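We modelled the chain as a single entity of 454 amino acids. Its sequence is:
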Amino acid sequence: MTDAQACKYVSTAVRDAGGRAWLVGGCVRDKILGIKQKDFDIEIYGLQPEKIEEILKRKFRVEIVGKSFGVWILKGFNIDVSAPRRERKTGEGHKAFEIECDPFLSPLQACSRRDFTINSILMDALSGEIYDPFGGREDLKRGILRHTSERFLEDPLRVLRAMQFCARFDLKVAPETVEICSRTPFENLPMERVFEEWKKLILKGKKISKGLFFLRDCGWLKYFPELAATSGCPQDPKWHPEGDVFAHTAYCMDAFALERTQSEREDLVVGLAVLCHDFGKPLCTRTGDDGKIHSYGHDTLGVKPARSFLESMTREKSLIEEVLPLVERHMAILDLWRNKAGDSAIRRLAGKVRRIDRLVRLDNADRNGRPPENPGPSPQALWILERSEALRVKDSAPAPILMGRHLKERGISPGPAFGRILSEAYEAQLDGKFSDLAGAMQYLNKILENCSGV
């Protein structure tokens, strides 16, 4: 049974029991837009939760999210089922709601609690009938993102949802929605939920610049101070006709979006690096004696604010440690190319950033985030890709050939000298002094000949 067939089965069973099932939210929006539906949400009216659960368990394995919430997940399907519910704000924060299941709530009342008009459209899975009380279809047609009601203010996370929605669907945020977002306080939002919205912006946004400019327009940029610092930071107009560092960052994200891969992890690492790559410029931008604007050393200076930005949203240390080397060395490809660097320098760079192909993607986004120019791949990027492929370090750091077990086989016990020998051997490997295990063992012999008491 497919997801669509399961939806029809549930809708038929609900109808036969005297209720009515509507498809709601994103699956309806995506169908109208001609986008393949991946997840389905069904809202059931006119039946008590106990009856809904009984119907679902006849055919499906059901996971109950919360009986008081009236939400069930159909195991093995991308389908959530819910009953209409009332929500009442009880305090500050994203979770400060009193929720009451109300199966006899009207569709109009239920739709009014949703965030945007484009997500407040219902569709009958059996007849295809559309119920659109707030004009969501017309807003989709006109490319408008508009909030549904004043209840928008109850959930501050909706501002970040607006950020990623206008980027994903290339929408213009209605002035009245920008205004209500400016009145919505950033209060006690869990970092995990905040990061989820940023991830959707990075991984799904088509025009990511729209989301970032919206964040600035509604005044929420101040809640991300490292990014906010780039707004108003000037750049040399000869090299950056697009404007300040914030505008450059926004357009770099658009360039990044055009080259996303099939790997969510790779796209997240590179996308975050593109977002953070110029965080150091506000710390060092100066106008020189020549009258030109310079930002010397912004790459290395950007590591600290980038870390602060990322740690405010995620506790995933491994992700942060993959992003920061790209920020710190985003100028390295150009430097190596200009200096006609040799193989050892490329190997060392691969060892620092883990994957040179990530750095190439960042370099391309940086180069193309300068509208109206769109020069395409840089000569330095093409050069280092060719060299890194030849050296077999394009998508991985050079693996050390000499390992601890080799030292143990020679009778060397772990201790202070143990690590020094491995480090020295790895440096020699990067310099091209050996390239296989036989060469590594010969190099080890030379080390041991010059050492005593190891």
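As a brief sanity check on the tokenised model: The mean pLDDT is 90. The longest strand covers residues 40-45.
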